[in-house]
Structures
1.
Amino acid sequence: MFKTILLAYDGSEHADRALTAAAELTRALGADLHVVSTPEPDMPPVVLAPYGAIVDAPPTDAQIAEAGAKVTGQARAALRKEGVDLTDSHILRGDAIANILSIADACDADLIVMGRRGLGTLRALALGSVSQSVTHQARLPVLTVA
Ligand code: ATP
Ligand code: MG
């Protein structure tokens, strides 16, 4: 049933647990495994001196590329330990939710695997905003790993 699995990976411990589950399914089912990641580089706030306002500067292409290389390197190394080769990795800037859904379409995935939580620090809710929206919006099965 599951021939193409898409792992949404943000480099968090939760995503690492999702990676382990995705690797096990990939091996057991002889499936293809894709990874999608929207890098979230730590951005120092920029002080706009004339206004005294503080805003988050959008990451530059170089920062996105650097963060993307780091996060996919981490995923590839962890998958190698699990004995699984990636079919492809997709690093995209912008909105993580839209990117996960559009890559699921583009690679014709039949299962998305992701963590229940991610890099965020708010622990009050069971699901993070990305796992919640993807679960609600996806037209394919989503496995959220605790
Ligand atoms: P929030 O971001 O709402 O503060 P959170 O970080 O705890 O909460 P989510 O962002 O929903 O939780 O993360 C849940 C899962 O979604 C992660 O384990 C990962 O699988 C996936 N995910 C989250 N952000 C990204 C991202 N930027 N790129 C790829 N996958 C992501
Ligand atoms: Mg998050």
2.
Amino acid sequence: MLEDKVAIVTGANSGIGRAIALGLAQAGANVTIDYVVHPESAQELEEEIRHLGEKAIMVDADVSQVADLQMLVDKTIEAFGRLDIFVNNAGIETRTSLLDTTEEQFDKVMAVNLKSAFFGTQIAAQQMIKQGSDGRIINISSVHEDWPMPGNTPYCCSKGGMRMLTRTAGVELAEKGITVVGVGPGAVATPINQETMSDPDKLARLKAAIPLGRLADPAEIADLVVWLASAQAGYVTATTYFLDGGIMQGSPGL
Ligand code: BGC
């Protein structure tokens, strides 16, 4: 499906990013694994991708820094000669409310989740235009680009920004043949939800809120990303696909 394509996945060494990097490689793409912590898990993923018969490189780049994003793309071009798919996946949350969030927490969430996606999209699109090809930019957002999560306000603000980045950049880049699509997962079994998953009461409450009654497996998110990166999804742009087990439509039927 993605033979000869080259992809970059930010925050690729854990959670949803890891599943996406593997999924893209399974579909035939060569992959750049971006990471900032745990080089050993990036290394493990690189080896796993090599075993699949695809090429992978790992790059230590802090995506909240524009210079690092440029370096991420430059190293990919050096290794693979082109760029077709850029996945803005790296993300963090503070689980803090409006009233208790510090300036430092706000700035960090916005820089890692939104500034990175803005400039990642810009730098990836510049490269795709330069090489004269079309391209795919996929933003890993959240149900919380549209659905409040009290107690996680900076995260919601960052994902709300990502929602409009997807729409506006999608429209701006359409004439260049570059699509920009958002993927909005609900609750996924990844390290970001570790605290909830290890507290039986919180986990029971979360599952009860999900019509399908369970968290998603990261591979279920990756499957959609692989399809969005493929030729079959050529008419999709400037919108978000939600994979949330129905959580955004949940209703007690009162
Ligand atoms: C957040 C999780 C939350 C999930 C469902 C995700 O985007 O990172 O903390 O559990 O959405 O609400």
